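A common beginner's mistake is to predict each chain separately and then try to dock the pieces by hand. The better habit, illustrated here, is to supply every component at once so that their relative placement is modeled jointly.
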Amino acid sequence: MKTSDRQSHFYQQIYQLVRKIPPGKVATYGQIAELLGRPRHARQIGYALYRVAPDSDIPWQRVVNAQGMISHSPQRQGSDDLQRILLEQEGITFNSQEKLDLRRYRWQPDLLE
DNA sequence: ACGGTGACACCAG
DNA sequence: TCTGGTGCCACCG
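With all components supplied together, the output reads:
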């Protein structure tokens, strides 16, 4: 299997898993990578989500960094600001330090799937 | 082809 | 807490 095929397959796995995150819950980049059996590949999750169109059916907004914060970047062309708006619409609140409470909102995937 | 870059994470101080 | 350094590895010019 070519490397490029393995990679796009990995991206599909990422999208499929992110789709399972229910409204009002979030996962971290590292958590997604680990759940897919690739610890330390958190950056790949960011790359995969970067390619997702803002109006996609993939709930890309439900993935944040390990500090419970939205990762900002000029490259995102404002989708980072949109991310916060979408999450707040789902009932998620941010504290004065722009952080959401991971203990409260972290998605716990059902192991029996 | 190759080196800089980055929607990350973790650790030391 | 916060900051800086390090590990990681696909992406892109």
